[in-house]
Each structure stands twice: as C-alpha cells, then as structure tokens.
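TICKET: design request
STATUS: open
ATTACHED STRUCTURE:
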C-alpha cells in the first residue's frame, strides 16, 4: 500500500476498527441539480441509507414511497415493499446506462443503482484502499483557496463497482479527505469534484457529514456556480 494511503486510513480510524464492523447507516438529506436533471427530484431527498462494509451492498429506505426501499448490488438492483416483496428488479443494471449523457433521464431502478454505488463508495472510502487489487500512488500536491493538499491517485480493479476506475483523493495536513475527484461513467463520464467537511467521530471512525459535488473543469478547478449534489448525514449508526 502506498504510504499516503496508509496515513489516510489511519487518520480516519484505522483498518483494525473498520474490520470489526459490518454496516453503517445514517439519516440522509440530498439536494442539487442532478435529481431534477434525471427526472427524480425528491425521491431520495430525505431517507435513511445503509451500506455494507463487507460486500458491495446498499439500501435506501424509504425510496420515494414510504412503503418502498431499494436494494443495490453491482449485478442487480431491486425495489422492495415494506413486507419484503420485490416490486421491481433490474439485472445487470450498469448496461442500462449505455449511451447516457448527463441529461439522460433515469428510471427508479437506475436511480437505485446510482445512489447505491455512490453511497457505498463514499462511506467505505478510504478503507477500500486496502482491498485486494486497489492500486494507489501519491502524486503532486494541489493548492486551492490558500490550502495545500496532498493527493492520492487510485485505480480500482474491475471487480469493485464505483463511479470510475481512476479517482483522486485530496487530503489535508491531518490526513482527512477534503476532496474526492472521479468521472461518473454512467452519466457520460461527467467529471466531478466532491468536497467533504463536517467531520464527526462515531465508534472510533471519522465520517464527513457534509458533502458538496460540483462539475470539475479541464484545469481541475470546480465550477462553483453549479451544485450538482449536496449530501448531509446525521444520526450515524454502526453495527
């Protein structure tokens, strides 16, 4: 593992503690332009998200209708009733995004796939840096608004489903992640700059409870006049 990767993991609580847990859940509120663009405004504006720390699985409850929840895995997504009955399913969901651009509307099941993989990624970073097949290397530092952040370039293997194979973490002097760059492949490769703040400690781990995502421009700077997604988390529970 790259030394910076090890520092980042330790700053967020360490692998030993993370490996003692099986899941994280939190109250989630979301806003931003993306949901309107995709024709799904309000569906996941106020919900509870749960992600697994042992496999690629996530769920949002409620999912729009109070009686529905989503279940995400890379190979299958489903909408499930409060009684546990599957209402809709989609096998091989990533293929359904072929040819999509940022402006292409989503179905509910496509939203469930995107939201599931996104929140699984966000709540499992940085510990995924220690998973088999994940490669990382420190690259040149970055200056932004008077701060200098160290940067870690990541390459994810094919068996880990996330926004894009290549991603970059920006960390402050304490090792906490302040920015996370990726390209949203299922939305035409749209480049994003994802900012993290509001760190809180739960169960020995540090979590960013406020996240703001903007378009990333060709020079690497964010387009601050367009908030693509806002994410706020509270009432975190670990199990």
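STATUS: resolved
RESOLUTION: sequence designed for all positions
ATTACHED SEQUENCE:
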């Amino acid at each position: 593992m790259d030394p910076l990767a090890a520092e980042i993991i330790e700053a967020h609580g360490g692998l030993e503690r993370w490996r003692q847990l099986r899941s994280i859940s939190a109250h989630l509120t979301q806003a931003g332009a993306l949901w309107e663009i995709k024709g799904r405004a309000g569906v996941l504006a106020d919900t509870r998200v749960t992600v697994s720390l042992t496999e690629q699985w996530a769920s949002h409850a409620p999912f729009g209708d109070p009686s529905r929840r989503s279940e995400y895995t890379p190979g299958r997504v489903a909408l499930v009733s409060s009684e546990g009955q599957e209402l809709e399913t989609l096998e091989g969901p990533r293929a359904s995004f072929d040819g999509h651009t940022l402006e292409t509307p989503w179905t509910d099941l496509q939203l469930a796939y995107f939201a599931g993989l996104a929140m699984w990624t966000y709540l499992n970073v940085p510990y995924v840096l220690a998973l088999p097949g994940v490669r990382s290397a420190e690259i040149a530092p970055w200056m932004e608004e008077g701060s200098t952040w160290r940067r870690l370039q990541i390459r994810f293997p094919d068996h880990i489903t996330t926004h894009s194979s290549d991603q970059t973490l920006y960390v402050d002097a304490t090792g906490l992640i302040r920015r996370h760059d990726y390209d949203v492949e299922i939305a035409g490769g749209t480049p994003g700059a994802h900012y993290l703040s509001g760190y809180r400690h739960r169960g020995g781990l540090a979590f960013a409870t406020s996240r703001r995502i903007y378009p990333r421009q060709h020079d690497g700077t964010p387009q601050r006049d367009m908030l693509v997604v806002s994410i706020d988390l509270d009432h975190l529970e670990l199990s």
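CLOSING REMARK: The mean pLDDT is 97. The chain has one domain: 3-238.
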